[in-house]
């Protein structure tokens, strides 16, 4: 419910509580769980009764009696042990609805006030294809970026490419083995700028090289030596690294575009490489890093810990920097961005300990002081067997496999319904398939995993992305058919109208809640609820065929409000809506 509506009730309650000598901090109302009883409810009489030693019913009666004179409320009733149920006057609700519709922000508060939030999401690794985990990060991260942006934050989306680790050494060592005479390895520049392999070869090469390193210590030693040489600045290896990175990033950028994901920066671990040694030296000099078995570590355990938080490994015995090191150095660089207030890492929940270590080490080192550091973790995408989703061949599922499967299922549906022209079907199937995957990714608590069941996700009914798309398409077409008819303010009087309008007015509060909790699922559930309420309203109330013109224009106003908030919500989820479906 629109925050301002609730806060107006709270203000009325505050006046009444003051007059009645009730504890002022209890003067609050909340949306009613049972609309038949009222629009909002105040439970304060129960708590006040404990403080004052009076029966709650008597207190509730006093509150209700005092509120009854207020023209904003059509009914104030006491129920149960002492609940005060309040129903808004239709005119009051209508005014609030008209105000929301006229507000360009649709009731979403400017909470960020221009403060900067960095969203670290996507996190693809160079030379490896995007997999389902990256998909979740991309979808959740993009939605969070949009939600925080709507709440008035200045957002900076950063893909934080994994481009400086052992996989790069594994690749160059494998390429060297195939052709040691390549200029990259002979130290004789100039080096070709094009990659010596195609994208397909590269994507095959990495798993092969990784497997070989796992099985053969000599291969692993070669990969480590190349990684160390690369990190030490070997010009040939740097040139090869650069070419492979470019090839891989170009492909990933195409995937981002397909998913409608926007990044402000495609920075990677490698971008902070020159700052690693200075930070390490500084931490050592200040006694924050200590030597341990040839390596350098930062102790991050705290007295109250209930489970062990091991030291953060800063530099390995062979001198190589690690994942945590680049995260610390990257944070140090981000802290220099003007106005930075928050960094949100949208990364697999299984990395929770890693982020705890990084955040604690940052605190100890005084890196990013005063900046709110949050790990917004997420669970795994599972197959119908409940185990992490695999391809039909049993391999690690790539993002493209998953999207292809959803798009294929969507295409079957589109064929079956045959409502759109043949030429439009492939694009429609893609849009529906994407929406299906995104909605599934965003629904529910992000920390829990979900079952990827393409068949179910592309359904037009139930809690699905296509159901939301369909509601928007239906509303758009309805309003298009109303061209030339009068559209009045969204005044609701019947229960199906009021319930829809009241829920629409909750948009701002839901966006805030989703932003605070970093849970797009809150908004996804709300949008689904709106779509359902609209469907009920449309079943019960005539709109275009309504003969009473005043009533029709009110209802068209309600449809306009519904479309405005639903369209905005769907956009914040990062879901596109096709023209027809
Ligand atoms: N590249 C990492 C992975 O694939 C994710 C990076 C997440 N972001 C970060 N700042 N550590 O697991």
TrEMBL record:
Name of the protein in its database record: Arginine--tRNA ligase
Residue stretches making up the Arginyl tRNA synthetase N-terminal domain: 7-88
Keyword field contains Zinc-finger: no
A GO term for molecular function: arginine-tRNA ligase activity
Family classification: Belongs to the class-I aminoacyl-tRNA synthetase family.
Catalytic activity: tRNA(Arg) + L-arginine + ATP = L-arginyl-tRNA(Arg) + AMP + diphosphate
SUPFAM superfamilies: Anticodon-binding domain of a subclass of class I aminoacyl-tRNA synthetases (SSF47323), Arginyl-tRNA synthetase (ArgRS), N-terminal 'additional' domain (SSF55190), Nucleotidylyl transferase (SSF52374)
Species assigned in the record: Luteibacter yeojuensis
Pfam families, per database record: Arg_tRNA_synt_N (PF03485), DALR_1 (PF05746), tRNA-synt_1d (PF00750)
Enzyme Commission code: 6.1.1.19
UniProt superkingdom: Bacteria
Annotated SMART domains: Arg_tRNA_synt_N, DALR_1
Keywords in alphabetical order: Aminoacyl-tRNA synthetase, ATP-binding, Cytoplasm, Ligase, Nucleotide-binding, Protein biosynthesis
GO CC annotation: cytoplasm
Every DALR anticodon binding domain range: 468-581
């Amino acid at each position: 419910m629109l925050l301002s509506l609730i806060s107006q009730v709270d203000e009325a309650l505050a006046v009444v509580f003051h007059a009645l000598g009730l504890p002022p901090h209890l003067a609050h109302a909340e949306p009613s769980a049972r609309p038949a009883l009222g629009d909002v409810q105040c439970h304060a009489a129960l708590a006040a009764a404990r403080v004052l030693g009076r029966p709650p019913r008597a207190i509730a009666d006093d509150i209700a009696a005092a509120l009854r004179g207020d023209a904003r409320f059509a009914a104030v009733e006491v129920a149960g042990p002492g609940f005060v149920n309040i129903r808004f006057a239709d005119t009051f609700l209508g005014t609030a609805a008209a105000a929301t519709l006229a507000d360009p922000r649709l009731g979403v508060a400017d909470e960020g006030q221009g403060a900067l939030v960095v969203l670290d999401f996507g996190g693809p690794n160079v030379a490896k294809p995007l997999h389902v985990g990256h998909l979740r990060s991309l979808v959740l991260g993009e939605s969070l970026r949009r939600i925080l942006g709507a709440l008035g934050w200045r957002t900076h989306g950063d893909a934080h490419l994994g481009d400086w680790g052992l996989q790069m050494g594994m690749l160059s060592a494998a390429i060297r083995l195939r052709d040691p005479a390549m200029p990259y390895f002979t130290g004789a520049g100039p080096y070709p700028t094009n990659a010596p392999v195609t994208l397909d070869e590269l994507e095959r090469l990495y798993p092969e090289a990784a497997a070989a390193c796992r099985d053969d210590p000599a291969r692993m030693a070669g990969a480590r030596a190349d990684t160390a040489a690369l990190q030490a600045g070997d010009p040939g290896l740097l040139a090869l690294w650069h070419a492979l990175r470019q090839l891989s990033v170009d492909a990933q950028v195409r995937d981002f575009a397909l998913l409608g994901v926007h990044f402000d920066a495609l920075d990677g671990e490698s971008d902070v490489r020159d700052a690693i040694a200075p930070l390490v030296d500084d931490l050592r000099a200040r006694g924050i890093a200590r030597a341990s078995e040839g390596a350098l570590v930062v102790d991050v355990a705290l007295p109250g810990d209930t489970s062990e938080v091991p030291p953060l490994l800063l530099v390995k015995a062979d001198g190589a920097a690690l994942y945590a090191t680049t995260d610390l150095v990257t944070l140090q660089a981000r802290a220099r961005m003007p106005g930075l207030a928050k960094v949100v890492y949208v990364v697999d929940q299984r990395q929770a300990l890693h982020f705890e270590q990084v955040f604690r080490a940052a605190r100890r080192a005084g890196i990013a002081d005063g900046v709110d550091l949050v790990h917004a973790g997420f669970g795994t995408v599972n197959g119908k067997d409940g185990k992490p989703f695999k391809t039909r061949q049993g391999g690690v599922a790539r993002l493209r496999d998953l999207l292809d499967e959803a798009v294929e299922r969507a295409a079957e549906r589109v064929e079956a319904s045959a409502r759109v022209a043949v030429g439009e079907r492939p694009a429609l199937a893609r849009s529906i398939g994407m929406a299906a995957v995104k909605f599934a990714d965003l629904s529910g608590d992000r920390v829990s995993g979900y079952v990827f069941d393409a068949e179910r996700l592309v359904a037009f009914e139930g809690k699905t992305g296509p159901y939301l798309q369909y509601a928007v398409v239906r509303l758009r077409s309805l309003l298009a058919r109303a061209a030339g008819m009068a559209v009045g303010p969204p005044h609701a009087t019947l229960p199906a109208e009021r319930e829809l309008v009241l829920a629409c007015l909750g948009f701002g509060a839901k966006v805030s809640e989703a932003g605070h909790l970093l849970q797009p699922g809150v908004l996804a559930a709300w949008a689904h609820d709106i779509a359902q309420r609209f469907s009920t309203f449309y079943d019960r109330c005539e709109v275009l065929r309504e003969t009473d013109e005043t009533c029709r224009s009110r209802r068209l106003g309600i449809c306009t409000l519904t479309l405005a908030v639903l369209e905005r919500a769907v956009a914040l989820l990062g879901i596109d809506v096709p023209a027809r479906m």
